[in-house]
Amino acid sequence: PIQSVCVLSVGGAWRLGTDVRNTVGNIPMEWYQDYPHIGYDLDGKKIFKPIRNKDELDEFLDKMENPDYWRTVHDKTTASDIRLSDEQVDLVHRLQKGQFGDASFNEYEIHSCSSGPIVSKMVHAIKMGWIKPRKPKETTPQYYDLWAKEDPNAILGRHKMHVPAPKMRLPGHEESYNPPPEYLLTEEERLAWEQQDPEDRKLPFLPQKHSCLRAVPAFSRFIHERFERCLDLYLCPRQRKMRVNVNPEDLIPKLPKPKDLQPFPTTMSLVYRGHTSLVRSISASPTGQWLVSGSDDCTVRFWEVNTGRCLKTLEVGGAVKGVAWNPNPAVCLVAVCFESTVLLLNPALGDRLVVGATDQLITSYEPPEEDKEQAVTWALSEGPEHDKGHRLTLTHPKGVKQVVWHGKGDYLSSVMPDNTSNLQVLIHQVSKRRTQNPFRKNKGLVQCVSFHPLRPYFFVATQRCVRVYNLIKQELTKKLTANCKWISSMAIHPGGDNLICGSYDCRLAWFDLDLSTKPYKMLRHHKKALRGVAYHKHYPLFASGADDGSVIVCHGMVYNDLLQNPLIVPVKVLRGHQITHDLGVLDVTFHPTQPWVFSSGADATIRLFT
Amino acid sequence: MSQLQTRFFTENKKYSVDDVPFSIPAASEVQDLSSVINKLLEAKNGSHSQVEFDFLVRGQFLRTSLASHMEAESISTEDVVEIEYVERFTAPQPEECMMHDDWISSVEADSEWILTGSYDKTARIWSLEGKAVMTVAGHTDVVKDVAWVKRENLLNKLKARHCCRGHAGSVDTIATNPTRTKFCSGSWDKMLKIWSAVATEEDEELEEQPNRPRKKQKTEQLGLTRTPLMTLSGHNEAVSSVLWLDGEEVCSASWDHTIRVWDAETGELKTTLTGSKVFNQLSYSPLCQRLASGSTDRHVRLWDPRSKDGSLVLLSLTSHNGWVTAVKWAPSHEHQLVSGSLDNVVKLWDVRSCKAPLYDVSAHEDKVLCVDWTDSGLLLSGGADNKLYTYRYTACESDAGA
Questions:
Q1: What is the spatial distance between Cα A458 and Cα B366, in angstroms, rounded to a whole number?
Q2: Main role (chain B) (predicted)?
Q3: In the sheet that B346-350 helps form, which strands lie side by side, from edge to edge?
């Protein structure tokens, strides 16, 4: 809308330019909102608003129907609609285009004024070609990189990559005017300081003691110090240490998800109940049909795996510390150790022919020509003992804690832990009824032993390390140190190149025998002491049972190519055992063929997880 | 309230209604639909007595309201819905409880008698009412499975006829063929052996001779030794369950996670179905041609033994909380089966309603080890609590249902 031009009367003399339509002046017209009039005309009469104000509907109809709508302007001062004339519309258009409002004005016209002749001369010169017209400016690209061609090593570059100077050391006690006596150098130290090269000295000055501040002399080294500092500031080359920007998530190895590593035991399926005291040791038959367990209640029980039925119970003379089923499927023998005795039993489970063959094996023994003195007495069981299943009794000089069979089923090893003697480990041969002590020296309290599954090696775990002996060459091959307090249990991978040890300080160490004598990995999944560890014969699984009542099953894949390290992924925590007398799970063993794990606990139960 | 167009049909001619569409409120439940059918039947036949019905929409049992079922199954509510109705089976009612001396490992029912095998090394015969008829001793170890061969007029004494020797490991499962001429056994030595079940004339004569040398008499107590007709090998681990598909094919399930179908005449392996868990038991229904398997996970799976595919599980029924130790198809109903598990519960399933069993029976206090049906509508289950329970299970009316 065209603003009404108003010239206020100054002195009352001007009439020119006074607005004749509405004399209220330049005020907000909203003041007249509530009044029926909108101002006063020249004669002082009220200018009334149009009778009917246009409402929205009227506006809309107007917009649609009125042909002059586009050139109608609502004047606020008179509250009326003014239709613009053609010249006025033209003026509006010219203003919108940015031209001069007055159509008759020609901005290019040369006026006749003082510069007129000069200008016409110039025009003539240009026409003649004497003065070249100004060349059009080269258009610089509108946007360009201010710093594109910067030399990073230029001085300005250093300003960009400002490396702050190292801060000066704040004065310490040595610089005090009255330092404590320990900061003062003794005579020898002072002589030594003087003899050293200035570059080698730790302190560039001698600490001095003054009784009071008044006695402190001028600082002789002032200029020297400032000079050194200035050298540091501008002469020393500084280099920015590029810190590697590592995303911490990249450092964590990408382990496969447990879902992809199936099958492994996930739930508790069966509980074998029957024992009345803690079950220290369990062992599965090589076919996988039965399980034998030995407990502190002086019984050995045989269980059917898939139903949980206790098929046989045998009383023995003391708390059973260890049981082991002979891994040879052609022989049906179980070794049980309690107090100072190792008992070989024939449980008579399974094929009668196998049972009979086992008995044959026992009875077909021929005593050798010379009866050598042995550390252990072999006795054949007879009478009622024989009917119960006993076949051979080996009486040891001391308490036996563990029995373990060799993979072929003929050799047996028993452990009598004793810190002081060298008769801790014995190896027996059942078919020849011969016992040997392979060790001459005592290397520490033996915790457990194991035979190598394939090669003639023998593993002896003492409290802090595991020693690997070559039985054929009769020498020590390797000594593995597990940095844990007291190894409790040990298991050898069926491939023969890896070993795990569980210890009482909640750690499980995996040793790769080809890699080093230090553990390849230490797993700290348990909260309390580990009591038993085991490998599966066929699946890449291993399990550990601890005093926190849980069994943790991990996937442990060993690769045949020597380049890849074993992949260890914990997959499942199996709970179910109840903690009794602060003891939880005492032994774990896997089923020989299925991905199932058995665990025996201090709550007198054996549980099967599948 | 919205209405749905429905059309009812049934296979049981006795309860058929007119084949016209009805307008039913969408929020109807099973009881409402059942009363609708009953009213229709009463209108047709004045002497009709109230019967409970169960309804199936597109082969699935209706368990919620009609509207929510159709929404869950994405059935369009615009068209006429075809609803099949069948007689509802009441819950199994426990009838008898037969106490044994030890765990019951297996049970098989005849038309008149029940044969059970127990962990006390004996097998027992009971009448259907629960009376002990006879005890069969002779085994020197736990009896794992029993099967009927032929039932003739029983003498007071039962003597072992034959002792079939040949297995090298515990025999865990036996089954007789439909013609009762042969039986097959599966064992922990990974083999299946087929034996003849026919008693020969000579054997009977020999048994009567009293003055035989002592050694032979001892074996005579166990019957005469018999050797297998055929040995089927191929499983990599213990065979846990064996059954005859028809007269010529034997099906076995094993701990090596496979089900194998063999030809009994030639001894060849025909098909192998592979699963992922140890199989505990198999059952076959000639009515619907399906195999049901119970495994060491909590599922009952249905398989088609004729499929050429290696491992096609048709249906998985999940409701148990422990290993499924026993499964058996109903002899007269092609959709029903019963399963027993280590979680002490026996469940009755209709395979058309695969999300939940029809009924759960928790009569046992310990693991359920075996289940069976009788032809007269009795369910049997035996377990580790030394009890054999029988339950009556029929349709609401006295005659057998659809």
A1: 45
A2: Component of the PeBoW complex, which is required for maturation of 28S and 5.8S ribosomal RNAs and formation of the 60S ribosome.
A3: B324-329, B336-341, B346-350, B359-361
The tens digit of pLDDT for each residue in A413-426 reads 999 988 888 888 99
Whether residue A594 lies within 8 A of chain B, CB to CB, comes out as: yes
Q: A444 Cβ partners below 8 Å, 6+ apart?
A: A419, A462, A463, A464, A465
Residue of A nearest to B383 (CA): A307
Helix (H) or strand (E) holding A532: strand A530-535
Read off the pTM: 0.70
Q: Are A595 and A536 in contact, with CB atoms under 8 Å apart?
A: yes
Asked whether the beta carbons of A216 and A176 are under 8 A apart, the reply is no
> Please, what sign has the CA dihedral across residues B399, B400, B401, B402?
negative
Residues 6+ apart with CB under 8 A from B173: B144, B145, B185, B186, B187, B239, B240, B241, B242
C-alpha–C-alpha distance, residues A498 and B384, integer Å: 42
Cβ-based contacts of B119 with chain A (< 8 Å): 309
User: pLDDT per residue over A341-396, tens digit each?
Assistant: 899 988 888 788 888 888 888 888 777 777 777 788 888 888 888 888 888 888 99
Cβ–Cβ below 8 Å for A287 and B322 = no
Is the Cβ pair B169, A287 closer than 8 Å? yes
C-alpha–C-alpha distance, residues A503 and B95, integer Å:
57
Beta bridge partners of A550: A575
Q: B interface toward A at CB cutoff 8 Å? A: 103, 119, 142, 167-170, 188-189, 237-238, 240, 255, 276, 278, 280, 296-297, 322-323, 325, 342, 367, 369, 384
* CB contact set of B142 (below 8 Å; sequence gap of 6+): A309, A311, B105, B119, B121
**Distance in angstroms (rounded) separating the CA atoms of residues A7 and A23:** 11
The answer to whether the CB of A500 falls within 8 A of the CB of A542 is: yes
- A350 touches B at CB < 8 Å: yes
Retrieve residue A389's tokens.
Answer: 């299943």
**How close does chain A come to B139, measured CA to CA in Å?**
13
- Subunit contact A263:B169, Cβ cutoff 8 A: no
Instruction: Of A128, A207, A122, give the one whose Cα is nearest residue A173.
Output: A207
- Which helix (H) or strand (E) is B69 found in, with range? helix B66-72
Q: A309, B103: Cβ pair inside 8 Å?
A: yes
Cβ within 8 Å of B, A 308-337: 308-309, 311
pLDDT at A601: 92
Q: Is the Cβ pair B169, A309 closer than 8 Å?
A: no
ipTM: 0.82
User: Is B211's pLDDT higher than 80?
Assistant: no
Helix (H) or strand (E) holding A337: strand A334-338
Separation in Å, CA of A313 to nearest CA in chain B: 15
Q: Are A591 and A284 in contact (CB under 8 A)?
A: yes
On whether any CB of chain B is under 8 Å from the CB of A266, the answer is: no
Distance CA B192, CA B374 (A): 27
Q: By three-state DSSP, how is residue A178 classified?
A: coil
For residues A591 and A305, what is the distance between their CA atoms, to the nearest angstrom? 9
Please give the structure tokens belonging to residue B102.
């030890």
- Beta sheet of A425-429, edge-to-edge order: A402-405, A411-415, A425-429, A434-436
A351 touches chain B (CB under 8 A): yes
Do the Cβ atoms of A391 and A431 come closer than 8 Å? no
Q: Are residues B12 and B87 in contact, defined by beta-carbon separation less than 8 angstroms?
A: yes
Lookup: tokens for B203:
């054997």
Q: What is the pLDDT of residues A206-252, one digit of tens each?
A: 888 999 999 999 888 899 889 988 888 888 777 777 777 777 777 77
Nearest residue of B to residue A287, measured between CA atoms: B188
